[in-house]
Design goal:
mainly alpha; 12 helices; 75% helix
């Protein structure tokens, strides 16, 4: 009996359950990238659409003003209140999610493409690396799902966007307050990011044949540099 063909839906399950198999199967199927890309973007956008319809927006405006340094707060208050409108904030956030996600995928794909040329020379095109970036970032949907659950179980609707990042280093370990130098650092690094780096390390090994150590170094180096330099500056 012939083995059932592997599908994009199998890959979406295996990227969690059996990542090496999933990444091996998606390598020749570049067109599959639209599934993880669109699902990730739609879920992230849907989460923020729900957030801006759910949050106590007056509280959010007051909280934003409160985070301005005391010496500038009075001068900034009117401008902040004039600019911060629910629909405006939602549209800016949605545009940022889409544009920043695509930019990150492009930069990451370029980096991996060049790293492969230098380290292994494997015959892998840029489009395949873009697909690789979309697939390894697909686990980001769990961060969005966690944010939905957080809103559903919250005891009130006074929560900042950073508060939705329940899997961030800040919410889990650092517990810095807004305005603290470590707040943005800790809020920008999440368990999902670390999961993604593990997938990238596994995938680079599977795709190029490089050792696991070399693959992990190549996958993690940009993140180590970015967050390391940021931490030193703090």
């Amino acid at each position: 009996m012939a083995e059932k063909s592997y599908t994009v839906f199998n890959a979406m399950v295996d990227i969690v359950a059996s990542p090496a198999k999933a990444l091996e199967e998606v390598k020749p199927n570049t067109k599959w990238l639209w599934w993880p890309l669109l699902i990730s973007l739609l879920l992230a956008c849907g989460m923020f659409i729900y957030y801006y319809s759910w949050v106590d927006f007056e509280w959010l405006v007051d909280e934003t003003i409160r985070q301005v340094p005391a010496e500038n707060r009075a001068a900034s208050e009117d401008a902040i209140r004039g600019f911060m409108k629910p629909n405006t904030q939602m549209m800016i956030t949605l545009a940022a999610v889409v544009v920043m996600s695509l930019m990150i995928y492009l930069v990451q794909s370029t980096y991996l493409h060049l790293a492969n040329k230098v380290t292994t020379g494997a015959d892998i095109g840029f489009g395949q690396w873009f697909s690789f970036s979309c697939w390894t970032a697909f686990v980001g949907i769990f961060g969005a799902l966690a944010a939905f659950i957080t809103m559903f179980v919250a005891y009130n609707n006074q929560m900042s966007p950073e508060g939705l990042q329940v899997l961030s280093m800040n919410n889990l370990f650092i517990h810095a307050s807004p305005g603290d130098p470590w707040f943005r650092w800790g809020s920008s690094l999440t368990l999902v990011n670390l999961w993604m780096l593990v997938l990238m390390s596994i995938g680079y090994k599977v795709w190029t044949g490089a050792s696991m150590v070399k693959s992990a170094i190549i996958a993690c180096l940009p993140w180590v540099l970015i967050f390391g330099i940021w931490a030193v500056m703090i």
